[in-house]
Amino acid sequence: MTDPADPALLVAVPLVASVLPVAVEVVLSRPRWAWRVAVAAVAGYTGLVVVLSESALAGEPVRTVLGGFSVAYGIPLVVDGLSAPFLLLTAAVALGVLAAVRVDGPRSGPFLSLVLLLVAGVTGVAVTADVFNLYVFLEISGLASYALVAVADDGAAAVAALKYLLVGTVGASLYLLGVAYVYVAAGTLSVAALPGAFAGGLDGTLPVAAFALMTTGLAVKMALFPIHGWKPDAYAAAPGSVAALLSALVSTVAAYAVLRLLLSAFTVDLLRVAPLVRPALVTAGVVSIGAGSVLAVRTADVRRLLAYSSVAQFGIVTVGIALATPTGVVGVVVQLVGHAVTKAGFYLAAAALAAGYGVRTVDDYAGLAARTPVLAGAVGVLALGLVGIPPTVGFAGKLYVLLGALEGGAPIAAAAILASTLTSLVYFAPLLQRVFAEPVPDAVPRVGVTADGDRRSKLERATVGVVAGAAVLTLALGLGAAAFADLVAPTVEGVLG
Amino acid sequence: MSALSVLLARLPYVVAVLLVGLGLVTVVDDEHLVRKVVGLNVFQTGIFLFLVAAAVRRGGRSPNVARPGPYVDPVPQVLVLTAIVVGVSVTGVALALVVRIYYTYGSLREETVRAAMAAEGSGPSSTDREHPVDERSDERRADEFPAEDEFPADEEAPVDDEDRPDDDRLDTAGSGVNDR
Fold this sequence. Notes:
The complex is a heterodimer of chains A (about 500) and B (about 180).
Chain A lengths: L6 H11 L2 H7 L4 H27 L4 E4 L10 E4 L4 H21 L4 H19 L3 H19 L5 H32 L18 H18 L7 H8 L2 H26 L3 H5 L3 H21 L4 H22 L2 H32 L10 H4 L1 H15 L5 H15 L3 H27 L15 H27 L1 H16 L1
Antiparallel strand pairs in A: 1-2
Helix pairs in contact in A: 1-3, 1-5, 2-3, 2-5, 3-4, 3-5, 4-5, 4-10, 4-14, 4-19, 5-6, 5-10, 6-7, 6-10, 7-8, 7-9, 8-10, 9-13, 10-13, 10-14, 12-13, 12-18, 13-14, 13-17, 13-18, 14-16, 14-17, 14-19, 14-20, 16-18, 16-19, 17-18, 17-19
Chain B lengths: L1 H8 L1 H19 L3 H22 L19 H32 L4 H11 L32 H4 L7 H10 L7
């Protein structure tokens, strides 16, 4: 046993700790402690993630089988070079959001409990190597996100959360139906045992239908067009910190799950023996890129615009997954992590701007550079990151996926990715122009959150720090993209065989 | 006749497909929010039935129990048991949200709720300004919630008799739920 830590702790720590904030607040009546308990739990989780990722990225995957069963029957948890970036991302986003909500709120015990539950759920999706266990974690993270959307405590949030719940549960149930097909076809649910376990070969109706059902279910969580409808409603109705958390984690791990299923469970042989799978995935991705861009151009509310931009970004991810070339898959990982950091930062910035300055639409953003230079500068960097301008991480992710598309001989996909940069410029350029080139409109009073000015200035310090951190990370990940790709590449090549 | 006998031989699967289809149509098409949640449950039950039906093994034997059968594959049974727990949790959260929607908008009908949201300026279609998004709107209390008669769409919506008792029951039974 040279394992640095048991991967089961990664799920157990946030899951068990998720009881504490609400217990501390309700049972012990110590609301101030709830936040500290949550931070302590996430800090412990981060420590575990760092130790395990260090080993995994050094080429030594850490695995455990729950209950000591053999791999074919038990539930294995694996931290390898592919899941480690998503664990690090989860830890970083959770810490950032907790830092931002310390003053800015919401910071009630139930909210913090839900955050920990979400962390446990997305971690489970990232580390599990059992397709049914993945369903359970998908629903744990799903339940936490439905409740988090409704944290805003008004009717619009409840309607958005119910819509999200109905669509999300149908998606998860389709995934479960796919799991049933897998079990009928292969007789096992373990990702490690699945390759070669399909009795009639991979090109039978059952394996292809299973993959189609599972991918469709996960595509609902990724919010690919045309099943993206829950996303703008949910993200616009939720508090900014919740939108940041969900946009960074929920869709990202769903995309990771599709990638993991294709590479490790069904293996890339599926793309060869079932000729329809790759065109179907590429088409879904390209349509999402186009539709997301068109919808974003027509949107005035910045937070809805960001949600539609996610639809386009996950289209790029889907194209990269479909290519399944080493460069393309590395690009998918870079793109997913980069998008998560950038989008989370942008949502926190949008929330801070809405709370501090009362600006919500693209037109409202006029002259922000003069009013709040730091936030405006961060928004600029983050917008460039989403467009994909060097040296941001968005550029690196798109470049790798593009190279993967050329490598895999998919010119249409390559053209769509190039076009997505132009179309995202179409909706981010007006925003940047308003922020940096237009004067402050006359008679805009600086709207405070509360009458109490002290609280407002603290809000800026806490959230602005996190937003600036996200902007710096967007640049740093972009500049260090080659090193990042080198860390992930050996695992990807190993999985691709 | 032969087509019918083929279907009859696979009756559990046929029922599963019917339940999945029925549930999905209800989730998408029904405009009553509680019935949408019921539809979701029917949809999931269809999938559970599929799993249970797939577990049947003719002449199956147990590795460690001596008594004669019938035995089935235990794995799908366990999966369904877990999935039922998940489904119950989802239903609980869904109903909690439905209760909040009812107290905010005074209706469980999708159209009415949407009309009320549009009147409030926070409808999903309003992409323009005036999005009333106060990040910490704890001020909203029961006395602010609009009365039901403020919504003309409620009269326009076809109200069949079986719906009204639902609404009324929620009205009386849930009066303490509002402030959580």
